[in-house]
Amino acid sequence: MNTTHISIVVPAFNEAESVQELFLRTKKVMDELNVTYEFILVDDGSTDGTAERLMELRRENPQIAILRHYRNHGKSLALMQAFDVARGRILVTMDADLQDQPEDIPKFLAKLVDGYDMVGGCRQSREDGKLRWIASKLFNWLVYKLAGSHFKDINCGFKAFTHDVASRFDLRGDMHRLMPLLAVTTGARFGEVPIDHAPRRYGVSKYRLVRHRGLLDVFAFSAIRSTQTRPFHVFTEMGFSSSVIGILLLGLWLAVAYGFDSAGASSAILLGLGCWFVLVGTLCPFFGLHLEAMTSYLNDTAWRKTLIKHYSEAEDVSDV
């Protein structure tokens, strides 16, 4: 018997109409693959009975795990909660709206066997409108321009990766969209597979067309990547550059004020800019020291556990 242990991770917010079908279809695929698995649903503050629908199936399917939040905290945090408790050597993330097809899971697993550490889905025919397709293409282009990594469909939530890759993630804000980029920057080998994309049959999409937070996270990632390891060094170098610019501006101010136009507005502007750049240059090293001391204490495991309302652990079904 193949004893590969897979964790299926499904964050959900008000998806009561679809979660039962999603599990049953996933179960059929896993049974055909003859692998042991757990199905982790993260109920992110649903008010429509999403968790209760899956609880009905859990009585006869002990491989179901349900983690519930008191209120909605967003997809990034929901995924991190699941990663903390997942026991599988391989993790598969899917959306709960049935637009991701569980029948495509074998494609991801086959790609991992080929030596990839993380595999993302590339939706071949999107069923959520032309505008969303255009927005996704623009986002992929922006990631390429700012981060230098090319992805065909970085926004796709259907992914598979090793437990080692999952352990490296520290998702905040809406950083779940950048998981492939985060994995690649830590040395993971990333690949993509073509997948089907079904139209939404139940409820409404929880995602905005214009995802400004995702854009902000791209910029934040670019900044964090340069400061995460040694912020003191980075900000000290920035401070030095700012101080040099300020000193040059102050020197120019002296030349203008005493040599050409002592009463003109230009000298006041140069004085203000010079002082501002020198002030920034002085403060930057202190800001870097502060970041150096604080970055390791944000959003740690202990803090995330305080947000959990209830967690029902899946039983070990390896011998079933």
Automatic annotation (TrEMBL):
Record-linked SUPFAM superfamilies: Nucleotide-diphospho-sugar transferases
Domain Glycosyltransferase 2-like: 7-164
Gene3D superfamilies: Spore Coat Polysaccharide Biosynthesis Protein SpsA, Chain A (3.90.550.10)
Key words of the record: Cell membrane, Glycosyltransferase, Lipopolysaccharide biosynthesis, Membrane, Transferase, Transmembrane, Transmembrane helix
GO cellular component term, pick one: plasma membrane
GO molecular function, one term: glycosyltransferase activity
Record-annotated membrane-spanning stretches: 234-256, 268-289
Domain of life: Bacteria
InterPro entries per the UniProt record, alphabetical: Glyco_trans_2-like, Glycosyltransferase_2, Nucleotide-diphossugar_trans
Biological processes annotated in GO: lipopolysaccharide biosynthetic process
Pfam families named in the record: Glycos_transf_2
Protein name: Glycosyl transferase family 2
Lineage of source species: Bacteria, Pseudomonadati, Thermodesulfobacteriota, Desulfovibrionia, Desulfovibrionales
